[in-house]
């Protein structure tokens, strides 16, 4: 089946999550992604468990559909290998701290001399400019600076980190859309260009409701549990045996909820709950009164009743329940594949469903340096030269010991 990005060549020097997630998606869509890992240990994620036959599951999750090399860029020969890769590359992705690529002679100014059409994407904690540019920045620091930690958690509780590495993924998604935008621009006759992606900027750009409240009224987003900032009821509620989510975010849904589910039609005329905005202002009282009703029956009882009357609702699942949920499975969000070391494996599926060019799981994550020989042969290197590069500590041993 045709893949949308077939013919795009991506050289990936990133590691851990934001960069690798970006290049994984490009690989899922058909790009030839060549992951160049640091010599001799590879991506830091390789040292993170759990392990399957000594291979990191974390590493395998975000490095599928890539070919892998392990190159010592601190040697002249290793740099020349990278330069040879860049000559016909479309995209280059890295996530070093600002300034490091200059020291390694792999910065944009250097690489664009080799390939003027190159789209060069840097992903860093704070970006290439500003007073924080040289600080080390991981996802949790970005969550702190963007305000996410301060606004997450129960109203009476401590600040809480968002449950996933949300700034890493936000940066990855921002990098994907930016690379594809630059690629389209180049296809239309434009030049290659440099893209500067910041974890902080990428996550901050998603705080649109919170920014609107602050710019429009001076309101600062605060911890609010599961409740929405401007809509109610739109949150989690306690039942007799657990919690459920109810989203009656407009007046019609609210009136249906009162009449047909909660059996409280008098709340429709109640001054504290008269409009969506007023309900949001009185959300604590609304929650307390709704839970007096909801705690009389089980979660399943209420979810069935809410569905019957067309009111958006749902369970609050643990992650294992999520991965075994019938909706998730029906959407092919869990894929099975074979890994040469790990054996039968599972991974997450493709969230976008294309009718003509769907994402495909073509190859598992590479072993460390698995494709050194294959890729260098494509570049015109002889077998003897590859073996000499291994002997000279430029490539790792898998270049000659592992079949492509």
UniProtKB/TrEMBL annotation:
Give any GO molecular function from the UniProt entry. CoA-transferase activity
Q: Which UniProt keywords apply?
A: Transferase
Pfam family membership, one: CoA_transf_3
Entry annotated with the keyword Nucleotide-binding: no
**Which PANTHER family did the record assign?**
SUCCINATE--HYDROXYMETHYLGLUTARATE COA-TRANSFERASE
Q: What name appears for this protein in its UniProt entry?
A: Crotonobetainyl-CoA:carnitine CoA-transferase CaiB-like acyl-CoA transferase
């Amino acid at each position: 089946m045709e893949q949308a990005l077939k013919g795009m060549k991506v050289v990936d020097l990133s590691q851990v999550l934001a960069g690798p997630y970006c290049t994984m998606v490009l690989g899922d869509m058909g790009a030839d992604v060549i992951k160049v890992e640091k010599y001799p240990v590879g991506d830091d994620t390789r040292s993170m468990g759990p392990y399957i036959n000594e291979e990191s599951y974390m590493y395998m999750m975000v490095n599928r559909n890539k070919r892998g090399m392990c190159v010592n860029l601190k040697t002249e020969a290793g740099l020349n290998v990278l330069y040879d890769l860049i000559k016909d590359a479309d995209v280059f992705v890295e996530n070093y701290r600002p300034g490091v690529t200059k020291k390694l002679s792999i910065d944009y100014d250097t690489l664009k001399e080799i390939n003027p059409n190159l789209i060069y994407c840097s992903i860093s904690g704070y970006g290439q400019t500003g007073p924080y540019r040289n600080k080390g920045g991981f996802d949790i620091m970005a969550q702190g600076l963007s305000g996410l930690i301060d606004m997450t958690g129960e109203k009476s509780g401590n600040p809480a980190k968002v449950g996933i590495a949300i700034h890493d993924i936000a940066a990855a998604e921002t990098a994907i859309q930016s690379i594809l935008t630059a690629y389209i621009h180049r296809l239309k006759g434009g030049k290659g260009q440099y893209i500067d992606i910041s974890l902080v900027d990428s996550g901050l750009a998603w705080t649109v409701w919170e920014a609107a409240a602050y710019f429009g009224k001076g309101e600062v987003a605060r911890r609010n549990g599961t409740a929405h900032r401007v809509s109610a009821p739109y949150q989690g509620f306690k039942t007799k045996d657990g919690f459920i989510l109810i989203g009656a975010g407009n007046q019609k849904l609210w009136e249906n909820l009162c009449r047909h589910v909660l059996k409280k039609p008098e709340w429709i005329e109640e001054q504290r709950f008269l409009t969506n905005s007023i309900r949001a202002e009185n959300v604590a009282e609304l929650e307390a009164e709704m839970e007096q009703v909801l705690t009389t029956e089980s979660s399943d009882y209420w979810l069935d009743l809410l569905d019957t009357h067309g009111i958006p609702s749902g369970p609050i699942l643990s992650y294992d329940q999520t991965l075994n949920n019938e909706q998730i499975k029906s959407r092919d969000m869990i894929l099975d594949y074979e890994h040469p070391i790990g054996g039968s494996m599972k991974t997450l599926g493709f969230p976008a469903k294309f009718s003509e060019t769907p994402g495909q799981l073509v190859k598992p994550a590479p072993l460390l340096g698995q494709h050194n020989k294959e890729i260098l042969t494509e570049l015109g290197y002889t077998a003897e030269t590859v073996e000499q590069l291994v002997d000279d500590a430029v490539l790792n041993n898998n270049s000659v010991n592992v079949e492509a």
